[in-house]
Amino acid sequence: MLDVRNLAFGFGARRVGTDVTFTLSKGETLAVLGGNGAGKTTLFRTLLGLLPPQAGEIHVGGDALDALAPSERARRLAYVPQQHVPSFGFSVEEIVLMGRASRLSAFARPGTADRAAAADALERLGIVALAPRPITELSGGERQLVLVARALAQQAPVLVLDEPTASLDFGNRARVLAEIDRLRGSGLTIVFSTHEPDQALAHADRALLLAEGRPLALDAVSRALTAENVERLYRVRVRCVDAGANRRVFVSE
Amino acid sequence: MAGEGRHEVGIDGKHESSPEADTRSIRPCTGHPARPSRDGNPEHRFVTSAQRTPLVLVGAICVLIVLALIALGSGRYPIGPAEMASVIWKRLSGVGEAGTADAVVWQIRMPRVAVAALVGAALAAAGTAYQHLFRNPLVAPDTLGVSSGAALGAVLGIFFGAGFLAIEGAAFISGLAAVGVVVLIASRLTAHDPLVTLILTGVVVASLLGAAISLLKYLADPYNQLPAITFWLMGSFASASTRDFATLLPAVVASLFVLIALAWRINLLALPEDEARALGVQTGYLRTTVIVAATLATGASVAVSGIIGWVGLVVPHMARLLVGPEFSRLLPAATIFGAIFLLAIDTIARSLAPIEVPPGILTAIVGTPVFIVLLARARRIY
C-alpha cells in the first residue's frame, strides 16, 4: 500500500532525514518514534506529498506519489495534523465535510453521498452530537477526534497521524488510541508518530526509530522497541517493565 | 449557544448528565452509536446558523428594499410614501406624466442609491473573501493596501486624462500589484504573529502608495485635476451617475460569480495550509483566483467612489455573527449587508447636515471601534 525507498527529506537544501525505507501492506500500522526535532513531521509532510522528497521514491497504492494529481493523492492518503488551529468557528459537520474536497470538483458543493460519508465518520467516532457545534468551542481531545473523523470522511486507504495523542490528557489519549486500534481492525494502513514507546508497542505492528533523521531501527515493535534501542534513541536510562496482560512499559530511571 | 437540556458526548469525561452519556464517553463507539434525530431531540433544539441563514437573507433583502425606498424619498426634495408609490407605479405602468418627483427619483437619486449599494456589496464581498483566504479577521481591502493601490492607479488615470474604463482597469491592476507586494513581503517576514504582520505590511505599503498619490496631486494641474482627484479620493457618491453604475456592475457581477462558484472550496482556504493541501486542494491556484476576483470588485469600487474604508472589514464580521463562517452562506449575507450598510451610511451622510459629509468619515466612526475590538480579540482563537 505504502512503499518508501531510500527516502531523503528536508526543506530546500537543508537535509532533515535520510535512508528511510519501508513497505506497509494493507492493514499494517507503523509507529514512528524519535526525539524532538528528529524529523518526524518533515517525514510525514514528505509522505503526504506536501514537501518534495530530496531523494528516493514513494509509492502509494502502486503509483509514484509525485505522479499523482493533488486530488488523487488526497484520495489515497488522509492526514490528521498534530494540532488544528481553528481560524473561524466552522461547525464540526462542516469541518468533517471538508474531508470530501478531493472527491468534488472545484465548483461543486458536497452532495448527499458526501453528507452520508461525513455522518458515517462522525458516527464511527461517536461524536454525532458534536456535529452542530463550532470547532472553536471544543476541547483539544474533541478537536482531535473531529480531525480523525475528517480523515475518515476522506475514505483514503492510508491514514497518517502526526502525534495524535500529543497535548491530550490521559483519558482522551486512551480514547484516541482505542480509535486507532479500531481503524487498524478495519483494514486501514496507518502511520502515526508518538513520543511514547509504550504506545507504539501496544498500538502498532512495526516501529521506525528515527535518530537525527536516520533510522536507528525498523522492525516489528517487539524487536525494534528494546530497552537498548529506546535508551539510544532518547539518551536516557530506561527499564522495561512487564505490566501484565502481555504488555510491556518503559520506565526512565 | 448554551442550549438547555443538551448534554455533550463527553469526550472530555465531563458534562455527562446521564449514565447513558457516561458509558458513551468511555467507549465512544461501540455497538450502536446514538444518532439523535434532528427533530424532537433536545440536543438539536437550538437553532444552528445554517438553519437561520434563509431567514437572515430574506430579512436582509426586505431591509435593503425598504432602505432603498427611504433613500430615494429623502433629501432636499422629500418624497412621501404616497408620492413614492405613484412615482413607482408610473414607471412600472408607463401611464401618467412625469413630474419633478419622477426626475428626482429616477435621474438624481436612483443612480446614487444603486452605486452606493453596489459599492457596499462589492467591498463587503471582497473583505469576506480576503478574510477567509488569509485566515485573518483583520484584513480588508483597505488594511491589505488594495484600496490604496487601486486609488493610485485611478489617480494615475485621472492625471493622464484617461477614459473611465481605463481608470477602472488601472485601479484593478494597481490594486492587484499592491496586494501582491503586501503578500510577498509578509510571507518573507518570519514573524511570531502572522495576523498582525500582514496588516502592518498592508499599512506600510498603503502609506507608500499614499505618498505616490500625494506626489501626483502635487504635480497635477491645480485648477482641473487637483480638485477632481481630491474630491474623488475623499470618497463620495454625490456625483454618482448611471454611467458609473454601468461600469461598476459588470466587474462586481464577474467577481461575485467567481466567488459564488468557488464558494464551498474557499472554505478550505481557511484551514491551515498543510491541511488544505492534504485534503487535495491546489491552494496556490485557488488563492490566486480568489485574490483576483476580490481585487476586481475592490478596484471597480475605488475607481467609482474613491477610498471608502472600513466597509470590507466591519460587514463580514456582522454577517459571520449571524450566519457563521461557512462561505457559501457567508458571502451572500455579507454582500447584502454591505449594500445595506453603505446605503444607510450614504443616506445619513447626505441628510444629517445641510452640507454633505463624505461617507468615508461616517464609516470610519463606525469602523475604528470595531477594529480595536477585533484587534483585542485576534490573539485569541477566533
Question: What does the model show?
Answer:
The complex is a heterodimer of chains A (253) and B (382). With 253 residues, chain A is an alpha/beta fold. Helices cover 33% and strands 29% of the residues of chain A. Chain A has a 6-stranded mixed sheet with strand order 6-7-8-3-9-10, sandwiched between helices. Chain B folds into 2 domains: 1-46, no CATH class; 60-76 and 106-378, ABC transporter involved in vitamin B12 uptake, BtuC (Orthogonal Bundle). Chain B is built from 15 helices and no strands.
Question: In summary, what is this structure?
Answer:
The complex is a heterodimer of chains A (253) and B (382). Chain A has 253 residues and is an alpha/beta fold.
Q: What is the second-level CATH architecture of the largest domain in chain B? A: Orthogonal Bundle
Q: Roughly how many Å apart are the termini of chain A? A: 39 Å
Largest sheet of chain B: none
> How do the strands line up in the largest sheet of chain A?
6-7-8-3-9-10
Q: Level of helix content of chain A?
A: 25-40%
* Rounded Rg of chain B: 24 Å
Please count the helical segments of chain A: 9
Structural class of chain B: mainly alpha
H/E element order of chain B: HHHHHHHHHHHHHHH
**Quick one: overall form of chain A?**
globular
Kindly give the count of domains of chain A.
2
Using only C-alpha atoms, the radius of gyration of chain A works out to 18 Å
Helix content of chain B: over 70%
How many runs of DSSP E, i.e. beta strands of chain A? 12
Number of domains of chain B: 2
Provide the succession of SSEs of chain A. Answer: EEEHEEHEHHHEHEHEEHHEE
Which residue ranges of chain A are poorly predicted, with pLDDT under 50 across at least 5 consecutive positions? none
Which structural class is indicated by helix and strand composition of chain A?
A: alpha/beta
Largest interface: A-B, 58 and 51 residues
Total helix count of chain B?
Answer: 15
